[in-house]
Amino acid sequence: xxxxxxxxxxxxxxxxxxxxxxxxxxxxxxxxxxxxxxxxxxxxxxxxxxxxxxxxxxxxxxxxxxxxxxxxxxxxxxxxxxxxxxxxxxxxxxxxxxxxxxxxxxxxxxxxxxxxxxxxxxxx
Length: 124
What we know:
Helix content: over 70%
Structural class: mainly alpha
């Protein structure tokens, strides 16, 4: 159930990025759900391999090359999917950065609630 909630939150984050950033378009909620799923798969399967292959460049740039990888993958997803478009590389970098921020904030708002304490606190 938590995976489905995260997927929906990522789709909402993608819609927010498309609203805020010119150069990124998402046709609707269906396209956002598909794009969020594909972006999740790309980030799970392809991103670690690219980071491993570009590790020397990433170390030399003190990790900043990961922004380039994220932008390229975001741009790639926008070029492959119908209903989700990214107009260029730098728009992809900015979109990936904003997408990461928005999805993290949404997940933090939803999942950071502490469970209620029972009053039988033995440690205090």
